[in-house]
Amino acid sequence: MAEYICWFSKDTIIIKPPKKSPILLRMIVLVFAMVCGVFICSVCLKQISTHSKIKIEDIQVIERPFSDNPPTQMRIPIMHFPHPETFSRAECVHNPVRYFAILSMQRSGSGWFETLLNSHVNVSSNGEIFSVLDRRRNASSIIKTLDKLYNLDWFTSASKNECSAAVGFKWMLNQGLIENHEAVVEYFNARGVSALFLLRRNLLRRMVSVLSNSYDRHAKLLNGTHKSHVHSAEEAEALSKYKPTINSTLLVADLKKMEIMAARALEYFNSTRHIVLYYEDLVKNCTKLKDVQEFLGLPYMELTSRQVKIHKGPLSDHIENWEDVNKTLAGTEYENFLKADY
Ligand SMILES: *[C@@H]1O[C@H](CO)[C@@H](O)[C@H](O)[C@H]1NC(C)=O
Ligand SMILES: *[C@@H]1O[C@H](CO)[C@@H](O)[C@H](O)[C@H]1NC(C)=O
Ligand SMILES: *[C@@H]1O[C@H](CO)[C@@H](O)[C@H](O)[C@H]1NC(C)=O
Ligand SMILES: *[C@@H]1O[C@H](CO)[C@@H](O)[C@H](O)[C@H]1NC(C)=O
Ligand SMILES: *[C@@H]1O[C@H](CO)[C@@H](O)[C@H](O)[C@H]1NC(C)=O
Ligand SMILES: *[C@@H]1O[C@H](CO)[C@@H](O)[C@H](O)[C@H]1NC(C)=O
Ligand SMILES: *[C@@H]1O[C@H](CO)[C@@H](O)[C@H](O)[C@H]1NC(C)=O
After folding, report:
1. Where are the transmembrane segments (predicted)?
2. Which of 33, 157, 168, 323 could potentially form a cystine with 100 if both were Cys, beta carbons 3.0 to 4.6 Å apart?
């Protein structure tokens, strides 16, 4: 109060208000301050809540299938310490094991991808175990098979046994996976199985590969043996000599069907820990394999495969009725499949 008075001239002292008024003024200021405080607090709370809402929306956007940046849930994979019934894990008994499954479609590069994974000293990817009908007849036979595999009691040429740090297999979407998706998703989430989706961007290329492979089943172009994968440029060339004819009436509908199947699988498995990989990206970008190893919690290694790509170069070289196909897809949503050169 003293200071306040010092600032003013004598005149102001004369017009000094009655003694009671400063208290009233202080009360008004106090009430005003309280109102302000309450208001500021409410604004703050609102901002905090909208902030967290935005965050949740962001996460949903990231996890939405078919975004350009493949959704990668980089949560740490669950570690397991299985006790196989058939052998002892010996010196590796204290090494954790991660469970995975490669979810793919025929002729999407999953064979090649699996050989890459199996070139890692600590990965056992046991092939297409559900190609055998009896193992996928119903949900309980599927779960029984999975239990055995993840307990390391499944033996294939790829099994690394005691020193496996990641164990899995490849599973085609049409091998009981879509039909039993509820049971499988539940199993994956309960047991901590990570899904590696391996899909193809160019579904027309996949179609050429499916038709050629199916033709070779009977034609056996390589000296009377049928091969789905090859290890030399000569064999690749011999197989790619056959040019399939594609039924253009059904082409767009068939491509749509493939697209829907992949989208549906991604939707069903969206609650699992998963990564979405595209064959074309893996071919072009070595860094993707690093992402895969990181996703599986593996020590990093260079991965190699002896497999050789069969259909190289432009698609027009590999389709008998190219003109027809080119005309059919021109102006459709699949037009870019004609141009992409991989
Ligand atoms: C599932 O299929 C197996 C044969 O693969 C059969 O033995 C079993 O009874 C079936 N279980 C159910 C619940 O249908
Ligand atoms: C990977 O395998 C090697 C050789 O079998 C073993 O020495 C090592 O401990 C394994 N690493 C992990 C993380 O399991
Ligand atoms: C297949 O035939 C080719 C010649 O057409 C020959 O060079 C190659 O050695 C044969 N491969 C096998 C496994 O017999
Ligand atoms: C294409 O498929 C349709 C429907 O199955 C069939 O009617 C037609 O004959 C086929 N066209 C050729 C060229 O095979
Ligand atoms: C997964 O997809 C289903 C069906 O579209 C949807 O209801 C659910 O919210 C999705 N879950 C997540 C975690 O995105
Ligand atoms: C290769 O993949 C990595 C990791 O997924 C990504 O960050 C990078 O941008 C890719 N590079 C090219 C040239 O696409
Ligand atoms: C495909 O058809 C378009 C016309 O629609 C033409 O310009 C283009 O050259 C054709 N592509 C090939 C590879 O034949």
Report:
1. 23-45
2. 168
CA separation for the pair 278, 109 (Å, rounded) = 9
Give 138-191 as a DSSP string: SHHHHHHHHHHHHTT----TT--GGG-SEEE-EEEIIIIITTTHHHHHHHHHHH
Q: Say which amino acid occupies 80.
A: H
Which tokens belong to 18?
């009655």
Strands 166-168 and 274-278 come out as unpaired
Q: Is the CB of 271 under 6 A from ligand 5?
A: yes
- Residue-range domains of the chain with CATH: 90-338 (3.40.50)
pLDDT at 59 over 50: no
Work out the percent of the chain whose per-residue pLDDT is above 70.
79
Ligand 4 pocket, mutate which of 246, 249, 254, 257 (most atoms under 8 A from CB):
249
The whole-number pLDDT of residue 342 equals 59
Q: Is the CB of 250 under 6 A from ligand 4?
A: yes
| CB-CB neighbours of 122 under 10 Å | 19
